[in-house]
């Protein structure tokens, strides 16, 4: 039996790599309702949540943006910063007052390039987050817009 994939940073990266990444962190705080980024914008930074929640949303033509996932403690906010062309694929808004660690994407990408082992671990972590978010988005959008909800995965 395989262990469940963990996408929260404390367990997703080896301790040495987690420490190297955290050395680049800056503590930030945002009031409720702050837009961290909008779909289509430049992905120049990312965050790991300390306290609070962030809603991820997707533009839906003719409707309000659909919230497709909510993130909390120790979760990664943003993955588009790692993959060219570094454009956000979703939007994100602080659903509650938010405290987070903020990272400069170019700085982290440079560290990934300089240390391939570190880069591989970061890429695997972010890839696992991406896979989890795609599954959540699919389920949420089916629940919102399919005639009978998501039902079972086929």
From TrEMBL:
Span of domain Cyclic nucleotide-binding: 9-78
Coiled coil: none
Signal sequence residues: none
The organism's place on the tree of life at top rank: Bacteria
Pfam families named in the record: cNMP_binding
Entry-linked PROSITE patterns: CNMP_BINDING_3
InterPro entries: cNMP-bd_dom, cNMP-bd_dom_sf, RmlC-like_jellyroll
Descriptive protein name: Cyclic nucleotide-binding domain-containing protein
